[in-house]
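Please complete every field before forwarding. Incomplete forms are returned to the sender.

SECTION A: IDENTIFIERS
Entry label: holo-325
Bound molecule: zinc ion
Molecule representation: SMILES string

SECTION B: INPUTS
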Amino acid sequence: MATAENAYFRTELELRRERLLAASQANAADGTLQQLLTSVDDALSRLETGTFGICEECHDTIEADRLLCNPLIRFCLDHLSSDEQRALEKDLVLAAGIQKALLPRQDWSVDGWHACYHYQPANLVSGDYCDLIESGDGFLFLLGDVSGKGVAASMLMSHLHATFRTLAGQNLSLQKMVEHANRLFCESTIAGQFATMIVGWAKPNGKITYVSAGHLPLFHISAAGVRAREATGVPLGMFCTTNFPVCELTLEAGDKLLLYTDGLTEIFNAAGDEFGIARVHSLAKRHGATEPRAILTACLDEIRNFSAATKQTDDLTLLVLHRAS
Ligand SMILES: [Zn+2]
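SECTION C: PREDICTED COMPLEX
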């Protein structure tokens, strides 16, 4: 395991050790604290001997996101006891339910705009973020992808959700909102975890302002054709103080925006070819004139045909905004 990660886990474990020692002084302290203290000491000694993060059964590396959630674990997912496995499955099903409840309503219509999305975790929970929030004059649309997969990524996703839901009610400019969110995200995540995101504000007059923090290009579909708009800033969580330039777009009646996560572009076929941005662009050209829901269906059909029997390995989210009038 890398030195920086070791240092991180050592600090975390020593902090837990201190807390446990303090708590065990209290009158109400029971034997479980002593057991935990032993587990923490064991983990610290595994760090010393270089066996931290190695499964005691198969000697393979333990999943990084699980270690981040719980540095005391000693077995990889394949070698949990059946009780542990059942508990984990229950937790995941619960987490999936919570995450589903965080999604915005489908077929969103507000101020002459219509939006629909497709949200598909690779497993039970997803590290993708998708939200629509009514905010004063118009509404906010947000689509993002947290680094990593699984439980740790889904926790960061719900963190982003809470952050933006709170900031949206604060009367901030788009730029300030993203700067605040970035700082909060930086301060609450560890090094190496970040999120690419598009945060946009759609107004009733068709004007859109948006920030693309290191995210894949969005596509503006209009009668004149399909235009890709590249990212203009770095991902959230990379640097605590950084600027996020705001871009502008105007959508005429009938125009659409297509946003997606890398679960779309990074799908591979049996020959090992990647779906890629160019295919998304061509898809937007061919299906741009159809209804938003039909664009989503076309996307899903196309990747199904492309990837055929290969399994979905990444979280996938698609969002289409349509200026109806
Ligand atoms: Zn194992």
